[in-house]
UniProtKB/TrEMBL annotation:
<keyword id="KW-0812">Transmembrane</keyword>
<dbReference type="GO" id="GO:0030663">
    <property type="term" value="C:COPI-coated vesicle membrane"/>
</dbReference>
<keyword id="KW-1133">Transmembrane helix</keyword>
<dbReference type="GO" id="GO:0015031">
    <property type="term" value="P:protein transport"/>
</dbReference>
<keyword id="KW-0813">Transport</keyword>
<dbReference type="GO" id="GO:0046923">
    <property type="term" value="F:ER retention sequence binding"/>
</dbReference>
<feature type="transmembrane region" description="Helical">
    <location>
        <begin position="119"/>
        <end position="139"/>
    </location>
</feature>
<keyword id="KW-0653">Protein transport</keyword>
<keyword id="KW-0472">Membrane</keyword>
<dbReference type="InterPro" id="IPR000133">
    <property type="entry name" value="ER_ret_rcpt"/>
</dbReference>
<feature type="transmembrane region" description="Helical">
    <location>
        <begin position="151"/>
        <end position="172"/>
    </location>
</feature>
<keyword id="KW-0931">ER-Golgi transport</keyword>
<comment type="similarity">
    <text>Belongs to the ERD2 family.</text>
</comment>
<feature type="transmembrane region" description="Helical">
    <location>
        <begin position="65"/>
        <end position="82"/>
    </location>
</feature>
<feature type="transmembrane region" description="Helical">
    <location>
        <begin position="178"/>
        <end position="199"/>
    </location>
</feature>
<keyword id="KW-0675">Receptor</keyword>
<dbReference type="GO" id="GO:0006621">
    <property type="term" value="P:protein retention in ER lumen"/>
</dbReference>
Length: 212
């Protein structure tokens, strides 16, 4: 494992922990898109079905279990534990417009036409756009809490680091995965505008605001 993948994993884990702590400590999920969290739970569930069929390493298995567990814990907090604080009026992105096309694409473009491989491919495609309901929600409300922007920053950083990881692996290992790379590029592009606002506003102590 190279340093870019490892730091990418840590950034991903940091994002998840930041979000969970934010919800738990404030006893509120205000400003958090439940739809994005459901999509992420679906991403991890379909991607890590290989937990049932193969063992790569203790690190690999532990991280997969943590991602799945935290994803469903977040969904539980939003839709059950702190449901009264969930802002469903602004979380209105039509997720079927993401899931259905992504599902179709996974059937058409994959490495191997087998159930596990199609589901893995589906998870890669879906992860690249799973943050859209959250970004859409921020655009509707016009602003985001600082802690929410930290969550989004580390989530975007994780994807950018993984993109560098794929480049590293191509140059030093000869490994090339077009599906993962293209999806990673798409996901990183979606974060670019947010990254700019994060650096120019949030890191300077200002509140992140977007045109509603």
């Amino acid at each position: 494992m190279n340093i870019f993948r490892f730091t990418g994993d840590l950034s991903h884990l940091a994002a998840i922990i930041i979000l969970l702590l934010k919800i738990w400590k404030t006893r509120s999920c205000a400003g958090i898109s439940g739809k994005s969290q459901i999509l992420f739970a679906l991403v991890f569930t379909t991607r890590y079905l290989d937990l049932l069929t193969s063992f790569i390493s203790l690190y690999n298995t532990t991280m997969k279990v943590i991602y799945i567990g935290c994803a469903y814990a977040t969904v539980y907090l939003i839709y059950t534990k702190f449901k009264a604080t969930y802002d469903g009026n602004h979380d209105t992105f039509r997720v079927e417009f993401l899931v259905v096309p992504v599902g179709g694409l996974a059937f058409l473009v994959n490495h191997d036409f087998s159930p596990l491989e199609i589901l893995w491919t589906f998870s890669i495609y879906l992860e690249s756009v799973a943050i859209l309901p959250q970004l859409f929600m921020i655009s509707k409300t016009g602003e985001a809490e600082t802690i929410t922007t930290h969550y989004l920053f580390f989530l975007g950083l994780y994807r950018a680091l993984y993109l560098i990881n794929w480049i590293w692996r191509f140059y030093f290992e000869g490994f090339f995965d077009m599906i993962a790379i293209v999806a990673g590029v798409v996901q990183t592009i979606l974060y670019c505008d947010f990254f700019y606002l994060y650096v120019t506003k949030v890191l300077k102590g200002k509140k992140l605001s977007l045109p509603a």
